[in-house]
Write a structure and sequence with these properties.
Blueprint: H1 3-18, H2 23-26, H3 37-45, H4 52-61, H5 66-77, H6 82-91, H7 105-122, H8 130-142, H9 147-150, E1 155-158, E2 164-166, E3 170-173, H10 175-182, H11 197-201
Parallel strand pairs: 1-3
Antiparallel strand pairs: 1-2
Helix pairs in contact: 1-7, 3-5, 3-6, 3-7, 4-5, 7-8, 8-10
């Protein structure tokens, strides 16, 4: 399966989850600090409708800093009701625009991490296919997130899939927990073990 097909499958899984959430669940705080589930979904769909000119304008309004640019997009989409966000996701199951970059790897990685940002607080665990975890881990390390800086001087070792990265004292965890750590989510700290754990945990959140 191509990375773009994996990105679409990830969005299909997210859509299935969103379609059955209650209004209260949409208002639940996510793992993204200051963002509710609604905010995370708004962010996920906020880039797909942008052409090159609109994308450049948004980055300019965000002073070409990714966090500020994301905040601009969130302000533009946060007022849309859940039903509208769901329909936007449904109409962009195959990523377009910026999220289609790197052959869909941006959408796959962003979507996988943010789906866990939603699922974990809602108590909605799932088994993530290994063929999605691997490219997502790679993109999280070397793509926009630049997670490789966060995990410098430690070696990540997955306990459920055949995957490892880095040099230094080892940090053990499931592939999903390691991905969320690479993305800076402190919520997974208790799921990590190994001599390098303390060093990595200090860099989370």
């Amino acid at each position: 399966m191509s990375v773009m097909a994996q990105a679409r499958a990830e969005r299909e899984d997210l859509l299935e989850l969103l379609e059955r959430l209650s209004p209260e669940q949409w208002r639940t705080p996510s793992l993204c600090e200051g963002w509710t589930v609604h905010d995370v979904v708004a962010h996920v769909v906020s880039y797909d409708e942008l052409g090159p000119r609109e994308l450049a304008a948004r980055f300019a309004r965000g002073f070409f800093l990714i966090d500020r640019t994301n905040a601009v997009g969130l302000r533009e989409y946060a007022g849309r009701p859940p039903a509208e966000l769901v329909e936007l996701l449904r109409s962009h199951l195959t990523p377009t625009g910026l999220t289609a970059g790197l052959g869909g790897a941006i959408a796959l990685t962003d979507g996988l991490i943010h789906q866990q940002d939603i699922r974990r607080p809602l108590g909605e665990p799932r088994a993530i296919p290994e063929d999605r975890l691997r490219p997502a881990l790679r993109t999280a390390l070397f793509g926009v997130l630049r997670g490789v800086v966060r995990v410098r001087d430690v070696r990540l070792v997955a306990t459920d899939v055949d995957w490892a990265f880095g040099r230094g004292p080892e940090v053990h965890g499931t592939g999903e927990a390691l991905l969320m750590a690479v993305a800076g989510r402190k919520a997974v700290a208790d799921e990590l073990t190994g001599p390098g754990r303390g060093r990595l945990v200090q860099r989370l959140g």
